[in-house]
Amino acid sequence: MAGTDHSREGMTGGPAIILVNPQLGENIGTAARAMLNCGLDDLRLVAPRDGWPNDRAVAAASGADWVLDKARLYPSIPAAIADLAHVYAATARDRYMVKRIVTAHHAAPELRRLIGAGEPCGVLFGPERTGLVNDDIALAGTVLTVPLNPAFSSLNLAQAVLVVGYEWFSAADDTPPDQFHTGSSRPANKAELMRFFDHFEEELENSGFIRHPDKRPSMVRNLRNLFQRANPTEQELRTLHGVVTAFMGPRDRHKG
Fold first, then answer.
1. Do 45 and 151 sit in the same domain of this protein?
2. pLDDT at 215 over 50
3. pTM above 0.85, yes or no
4. What distance in Å separates the CA atoms of residue 12 and residue 40, rounded to the nearest whole number?
5. In degrees rounded to 5, what are phi and psi of residue 160?
6. Cα–Cα distance measured from residue 246 to residue 193, given in angstroms and rounded to the nearest whole number
């Protein structure tokens, strides 16, 4: 999905993303792209196989150069995490350690609380072929996992970074879970909706559609519920008024 808008203010901060022995520059670049998607900008590289800097990483980052330009190179995990108070190790496999385990979804608000309290955090990601080894995980206080198909839970490096980053970003996102884009017309208020109901129901009676008084209450409720569920805009209600009027024709046809 394309969605770059350089006119809008970007988001930065969050936990450090620590890539341990990444093998391909392309994977570093796509991980940086995933980070910037989610407002993360602290990229730390532990002994990348093909060295650093890497032109292939720049090409694969698709514009996330800012993250790559800030990336820091370390010789070892202890050096990369030295300034962090809390470290999470991302892994999909059971390592048979006595270690606290959280999902990315549950880790996100926890990370926000810790970072908000001034306690820097980071997430370790292992190399593409093997993932983190047990000695790497032993350096972390918490294992971070993503529940997936137990028969096939393998993620590539950028996917893993994106899932964790997305949960981090979503934990503070204030976008309503269910919303409609109404364009230039605002949602209709209840007074406007009631005026439409009065008009619509009057014309239904005039047309003979509502023939039986005993059935009118339930029929009216059903129709009103239908329009309430539609959440019409003010412009849509004006259009519906016009539709009802056009269908019914001139008012004097009902006289006499």
1. yes
2. yes
3. no
4. 5
5. -65, -45
6. 19
